[in-house]
Every structure is written in structure tokens, then in C-alpha cells.
Amino acid sequence: MKIAPSLLSADFAHLADEVKNVEQGGADLLHLDVMDGHFVPNLTFGAPVIKALRPYTRLPFDAHLMTYHPESYFDALEEAGVQMISFHAEAAVHHDRLIHDIQERGIQAGLVLNPGSPLSLVEEMLPILDFVLIMSVNPGFGGQKFISYTLDKICRLRRLAEQKGNADLQIEVDGGVNAENAPALKKAGADILVAGSSVFGKKDRKAAIDALRC
Ligand code: DX5
Ligand code: ZN
Question: Which domain holds residue 16?
């Protein structure tokens, strides 16, 4: 099980220190929430901030695009040095083209589903995707309550990926993840847990990360 602390809940006045702190605490990836204020009702940071952080850590960067026109961010994110890019299935039309565009840069490609979106929206792309990100809150903000019906969706996605011949598909879960629901998420088939407030909201980041790694 990989743990991906989400920078959204970090102290924005001390980003480099926060990143180094979770790396020392044993994080596997750094989850970077890029929002456009349109697809979701919030704004965060973009490629310039991600690029500025690149020299401070060796953690792989996992960029989660909560934006319309996700393809317009790919060049800058590649230059910023990210290893994973995911975009919302609901926010784009040409899924196949965008996935290939990401992968041709040597970056892992993922599709994201809102809690209310059906698995059928990503089903055809399962053979070519590196990962699927299941949102377990409505995207836009950290610190929200985990939506428990998404557990069943993760179980069904795991089975569907196998049926589609992609047993290596990584399933990432994002939103309201904490030490209490982590065991159920693992059992359902999650490979990567994104955790914002349950890591950055705690003083001892190593203890917080260890608690999630069930
Ligand atoms: C929400 C973001 C999440 C967020 C999770 O739209 O995609 O990555 O940071 O925060 P928590 O873990 O606090 O729910
Ligand atoms: Zn996210």
C-alpha cells in the first residue's frame, strides 16, 4: 500500500519544509491537487509551484488535475518533473488521446471519477490506463467526510480491471482517507491512499503515515 500525502492540507507558507517532512516520514508519493476554479469551486497551485518544489524532494509527483481542458497543463507539468498525471473523466472528451499524450511523455496516466460518476465512464480505457483515481469525496476541498459507498466501487473496479486484462491497474483513492477507513480500503483493492488532513493535520507525520499503512 502506497501513501500519497496531499499537499493541499500543508502549510502553504512553508511548502518545501512540509514536503521534506513527509518524505522523511516515509511517504511514497506526493499528491498535488491542481484546481482551476471552474471544474471545482476552488483554486490551488499550478505547474510553477510544482516546479519550484522539484529540487527539494526525490518523491514521485502525482498531479491530480481538477480542471477543464486538462491537456493544456501537460507541457508545463512535464517540464515541472511530475511522474503521474490524472484528469477527471467528467472534464474531458478525448480520453484515449489524452492518455496517450501523457504516456508518450514517459508519465503514468490516470483517469479520475467523482463519487457520483459510474465506472462505465472509464471501462473502455482500463486496458491502457496506468491507474484510476476514485474520489471518495466531492473534489475541491480537503478535510471532508469519506463517502462510504465508494468502497463498493473500488471492489467492482478491481474485478473489472482484471476482466479487461489489466490486473496491474493501480487503484488510488482520494478524500477523507484516515487510519479508521484505511483497512477497509485496502481490503476493497486500493493500492494508493491519498491523505491530506490525516497526514498534514497531525504534528507527527511519520506516525500519521505509519497509521495509514495497514
Ligand atoms: C480534494 C483533493 C484531495 C484532498 C484530500 O478535492 O483531491 O486530494 O487534498 O484531502 P483529505 O485527505 O483531507 O480529504
Ligand atoms: Zn486529489
Answer: 2-213
